[in-house]
Amino acid sequence: MANYIIRRIAISLLIVFIVSVFSFSLLQLMPGDPARLALGYEASEEDVQSLREEMNLDKPIVTQYLLWVKDLVHGDLGDSFIYKRPVNEILAERLPRTVNIGVLALLVSIPMGVIIGVTCAVKRGKFADQILTFLMTVSMGMPVFWVGILGILVFAIWLQVLPIQGYVAPTQDFGQFLLKAVLPVFCMSLGMTAGLTRQTRTNVLDSINQDYVLTARANGLPESSVIYKHALKNALIPVVTIIGMQVRIVVGGSLLVEQLFNIPGLGSLLTTALNNRDYMIVQNCTLLISLFTVGANLLVDIVYGFVDPRIRAKMR
Amino acid sequence: MSEHLGKDITMEEWVKLESKRRRKDAAKQFFRIFFGRGWLSKCCLVVLVVFILAAVFCPLLTVYSPYEQSLIDALQGPSREHLLGTDNLGRDLLTRTMYGARISLCTGLLSSLIAMVIGVTLGLIAGYFGKFVSGVIMRVVDAQLSIPPLILTMCLAAIFGGSILSISIIIGISSVPMYVRMVYGQVLSLRENDYVAAADLIGQNKLKIMFKHLLPNCFATIIVLFTGNVGISIMIEAGLAYLGIGITAPTPAWGTMVSEGYNYFMFKPALALVPGIALMLLIISLNIVGDGLRDALDPRLRGKL
């Protein structure tokens, strides 16, 4: 087991390295000179030159990368060009909002997806399965922002039961937070629920056709025990990996949801930063989001190894 | 086999006839499954064809231009001249929606094509060549997978600009990992077959083995991935356009139209709803037709893709 965990961590570190190279090169590849952008167009050539030296932009590219990593490890992410404040301060302010909404979306979609998926598999071919599968196909075809706009139209404008947009911190007013989070969480979790349902349904159907399920039935176990005790246990293990993959979809969706519902989180920060060419923020946001995904996947892999001995054996 | 028995033919002719018959049977089977899937998939096929026709022939179907503004006609309701009304700059909504189909289908198809070419090549190489090559390719793919596709495309769009071609390339790059993983998995199992070992033994070129023996066996998977990917690409393109990154304002992309129309949502919701409904219908029908294609091409793939 220790061997397995060490290997997973080594692979994750390798991925972190590749991702960090990508984030680093964003600053180099984006159009415009970062030092000039930071100081504005009125600044004198000498000031720009001295800032270039301060930002290490005059050094060879490998040195620049190493210095950048050194600063990162020390927690110095540079200053934002637009906000004129340290990036880590801005990130610390924005991150909890995205995490709150994202975690709620995961908490809603994982049980929903698993429950609907199992229902579909157990009642395969029947009316309930057909209608649920159809609904899931429809929701998979709806972009996040479109779900949001429909939700606003129905619940905020026609029925007037939910607020159109905005965000309140849960520490400030928990009831308001939940009320304002309903639509964003719904948008983010719909696509995820659909994907999870589809995967769960196939996995459960697969395992229902296995020999050990046939044996359980032949031994005269009640149907509920066959499904819930024997078939489900094996079918749900692969679902764990999919949940790891879903994290990046949540983060991607947060960009659209935060734009639509005016939530000042990480996603809207990244969108405005890209439009304003605030590259320090773009660079660090991208890196942070990728680190989150890598971390989530590592966690899932390790849990997966604990649950399923076959995976550990395969890695050797 | 029996239908050729008793006839005076050589072995070679028999093989020809037999393979012709099998191909015909396979084609028949394909059409039977593809068209025999109930009213829903038939409707979706019709919707898809309508969208494609509208995208191809939009200049012939309408007298208006999607760009020309006419502020006197701004924000009109549906009328004889403007079937769906006009937007805030007096442009015909129906015209813009039809041109939007052109942009969505173009970027969707082009980017899936690009992703397919790059992804399949990398997948073949990773699967067929040794551990080191596959290790490098698969780790890069894993790293790319840890960046959400929308964020990756946004960053790349900021670097490479927002023409339809560059957006297609960017979205294409973001879907490469899917193809690589799928083809890699298939090649790993195909490589164990005797015919690959035989080709290797008689000293056949590695490239020839890859593209003549391994690739054709992946075709079903690749086609199914491709059709599924068109919908995903269209969705990413719409998301980018909605955020105003990449394809921007005057271009009649559906995402841009929804985000612009949302400003007038309170008193003229049609501006955001019409392009949104078009977007939704196109993606859903693409997905359902893709599912049909998957079942007809290779029923074993059901649930895996």
Biggest beta-sheet profile of chain A: none
Q: Mind telling me the CATH superfamily name of the largest domain in chain A?
A: MetI-like
The CATH topology of the domain at 98-305 in chain B comes to MetI-like fold
- The number of helical runs of chain B is 11
Estimate the mean pLDDT confidence of chain A. 84
Gross morphology of chain B is: globular
SS summary, helix count of chain A: 14
Descriptive account of the structure:
The complex is a heterodimer of chains A (316) and B (305). By secondary structure, chain A is an all-alpha fold. Chain A has 2 domains: 72 residues, no CATH class; 219 residues, MetI-like fold (Orthogonal Bundle), CATH 1.10.3720.10. Helices cover 79% and strands 0% of the residues of chain A. Chain A has 14 helices and no strands. Chain A is flat, with a radius of gyration of 24 Å. The model of chain A has no long low-confidence stretch (mean pLDDT 84). Chain B is mostly helical and 305 residues long. Chain B has a domain of 208 residues: MetI-like fold (Orthogonal Bundle). Chain B is globular. At the A-B interface, helix 1, helix 6, helix 7, helix 8 and helix 11 of A face helix 4, helix 5, helix 9, helix 10 and helix 11 of B.
Topology diagram in text:
The complex is a heterodimer of chains A (316) and B (305).
Chain A: H1 2-29, H2 34-39, H3 45-54, H4 61-73, H5 87-122, H6 127-140, H7 144-158, H8 174-208, H9 211-218, H10 223-235, H11 237-261, H12 266-275, H13 279-307, H14 309-315
Helix pairs in contact in A: 1-13, 5-6, 5-8, 5-11, 6-8, 7-8, 7-11, 8-10, 8-11, 9-10, 11-12, 11-13, 12-13, 13-14
Chain B: H1 11-35, H2 38-61, H3 93-128, H4 131-145, H5 149-160, H6 164-174, H7 176-190, H8 194-201, H9 206-243, H10 254-261, H11 270-297
Helix pairs in contact in B: 1-11, 2-3, 2-11, 3-4, 3-6, 3-7, 3-9, 3-11, 4-7, 5-6, 7-9, 8-9, 9-10, 9-11, 10-11
